[in-house]
Design brief:
Layout lengths: L2 H10 L10 H5 L10 H10 L19 H5 L6 H14 L5 H13 L20 E2 L6 E4 L2 H5 L1 H16 L4 E3 L9 H5 L8 H14 L5 E4 L2 H10 L6 E4 H10 L12 E4 L13 H8 L5 E3 L29 H11 L4 E4 L2 H14 L6 E4 H7 L2
Parallel strand pairs: 1-3, 2-3, 2-4, 4-5, 6-7, 6-8, 8-9
Helix pairs in contact: 3-5, 8-16, 12-13, 14-15
The protein binds iron/sulfur cluster (SF4) (2 copies).
């Protein structure tokens, strides 16, 4: 980056507010396993006089958990700075090969998993689910991972069961649903003429034509991007834990089966730290008879990132010996939990991998909040 370009970048990202206190670096979970250091990046962008993002491949290590931005006492927002710097690498075509495959697949097939669009609604099977063509109160946005991943599909199936018991008028788009672009944006594929921009324009317009009052998402990533970056034309966007908590409060969901298990809750970063949704998932868990909710020390805004956000699930792990999710499973076992519950398909994948790697399947299970709630019906 040239000096003038660098100065504009520093101003746009409020880097001049930085006092180099190091809170961002100290709180960055990836600093535990890679050379990623947000304080140093801010310093270099500010002071070095020139800054070459190409020399900073650790930018791909960021999980976009935004812990750094939350902890920064000067509102510098280093998390967003990392995304902006990634954009420069993307513009230059310097992205890891696995990301190219995911982005190309989103463009061509509407999902990053190189799966055929026609199979997107296959998870429904013989469940009672209608298409949004007929209009509905709730547009249930399923998400790419939840649609195709056989483990995550169980979460969508549990939600359908819960919605039907509560008498919710909901519809899905099936094979017409497309990627929300959350991770595309966080990878830096944003701005003018970007893939993210085209998703917002085309997909956003398409969605606006359907008749519904509110959107309910499975994934905190879809929830975050629709809530903050799409024109929703006054329609409410809710994460499913928020919606279930409302249904429980309104007396539309009642539970009779006892869940006699000690459960701890892992806050997904995109739901908790980035959107302040801490209470609703816990309210759902507390409503389940017999369930004993125990908290890990690092919960709510102190929660540890699972490492799956910001496109990290599609990038090679720079240090596979150290996994944040493995650390998280140790913390859950430390509070005597038999179940670690979460509410995000990426967290689910990362935590389940960690349980398998540790050979701890007999000690702890990873379940989604929706699965526990459906079990308690
Ligand atoms: S926390 Fe904020 S002020 Fe402190 S070093 Fe990081 S960016 Fe600078
Ligand atoms: S967003 Fe998270 S992973 Fe990225 S630099 Fe900030 S604290 Fe580290």
């Amino acid at each position: 980056m040239e000096a003038t370009e660098l100065r504009t970048f520093a101003i746009d990202n409020h880097l001049f507010r930085c006092i180099q206190c190091g809170k961002c670096a100290a709180s960055c979970p990836m600093g535990f396993k890679t050379i990623l250091n947000p304080r140093k990046l801010v310093y270099q962008a500010l002071v070095a006089g020139e800054f070459d993002p190409k020399a900073h491949q650790e930018l791909w290590d960021c999980t976009t958990c935004f812990t750094c931005s939350i902890r920064c006492p000067k509102e510098v927002d280093p998390g967003n700075m990392v995304i902006q710097l990634r954009s420069l690498l993307v513009q230059d075509g310097r992205i890891p090969g696995t990301l190219t495959t995911a982005l190309k697949s989103i463009f061509e097939r509407g999902n990053p998993l190189v799966m055929p669009a026609r199979d997107r609604g296959a998870w429904v099977g013989d469940l009672d689910v209608k298409h949004l063509d007929d209009g509905a109160d709730v547009f249930y946005f399923v998400c790419c991972t939840t649609s195709y991943d056989m483990r995550a599909q169980k979460v969508a199936q549990a939600l359908v069961k819960l919605f039907n018991v509560a008498g919710v008028d909901f519809g899905i788009l099936g094979e017409a649903e497309r990627c929300c672009g959350s991770e595309v944006r966080r990878l830096g594929e944003q701005g003018e003429d970007s893939l993210f921009e085209s998703l917002v324009e085309e997909w956003g317009e398409e969605m606006a034509d359907y008749s519904y009052q509110r959107m309910v998402t499975t994934s905190p990533h879809c929830y975050d991007v629709f809530k903050h970056h799409y024109p929703m034309n006054g329609r409410e966007v809710l994460h499913y834990t928020q919606y279930l908590a409302q249904l429980i409060q309104d007396g539309k969901l009642q539970f009779t089966n006892k869940i006699e298990r000690r459960v701890t809750y892992h806050d997904p970063c995109y739901l908790g730290k980035q959107n302040g949704v801490y209470d609703e998932p816990r309210a759902v868990l507390k409503a389940l008879p017999g369930l004993k909710l125990v908290e890990m020390d690092r919960s709510r805004e102190k929660s540890l990132c699972c490492e799956g956000g910001g496109g990290r699930v599609w990038v090679e792990d720079p240090n596979p010996e150290k996994k944040l999710a493995a650390w998280r499973i140790d913390e859950a076992l430390g509070v005597g939990a038999e179940v670690i519950a979460t509410a995000c398909p990426f967290c689910m994948q990362m935590l389940e991998d960690a349980v398998r790697t540790a050979g701890a399947q007999d000690k702890i299970k990873v379940l989604d909040v929706a699965e526990l709630a459906a079990e308690a019906l």
